[in-house]
What does this fold into?
Amino acid sequence: MVAKVRPLIAGNWKMNGLKSAALREVKKLATRMSKEKKPGCDVLICPPAPLLAPLRAAVKGSRVAIGGQDCHAAASGAHTGNISAEMLKDAGCGYVIVGHSERRADHGESSKEVRAKAEAVHRAGLRAIICIGETGAERNKGQTLAVIGKQLTDSLPKGCTAKNTVVAYEPVWAIGTGLTPTAGDVAAVHASIRGRLKRRFKDEGVKMRLLYGGSVKGSNADELMAVENVNGALVGGASLTAADFWPIVKACL
Ligand code: PEP
It folds into this structure.
């Protein structure tokens, strides 16, 4: 049986956005959400760190949540340039993305480090969005399910619940390329992830949100969001403006 899970549409702005335009976009989004009588999904924007406080102030009391893009595993200390989960909570974040493929590739983050970061997010009382996904080369070798299975085992800490954890399946070859897996491919990977979550976390694994990410846009959102075990999306490029993001949100409203 497939559980009814409330979808999450999350925008990852990466290293994009300056204050005045960012505020305009997020306010447009909050206004559109406020016009929905009973929205069928949650909406999140993860801006770069300097925009967290102003964006949070702009959307406070609205249906748009704010989240971080990464955190350090420690609560505080001599870690120049890093931000702790506790600091993100203090800035008004509800979620933190950990293990994005750009962090894994550009900063050499291992699944063990991702797991420690996810533990930090839980320690701070926030929700971790834990990213996993295979590269194009791994996919071509038929290793997708094995790779994501191992990342899942190694990146998710003990104590994950449907409340404190979201899993995002993001095939690396689909991020920012305009390429997407077929709906059938997404269904097969998500079914495999769901099976693993169920075996490890029992009922919590049945209810845990499982996002698809990688070149989601208005034109493919309806099809991708209708796939079984897809409970929302993690969106990069198409989350930067309300005009591009809204059709994706609408696919889950
Ligand atoms: C991402 O980076 O998480 C992402 C999904 O990017 P895009 O939507 O631009 O492919």
Q: What stands out?
A: The chain has one domain: 8-26+41-250.
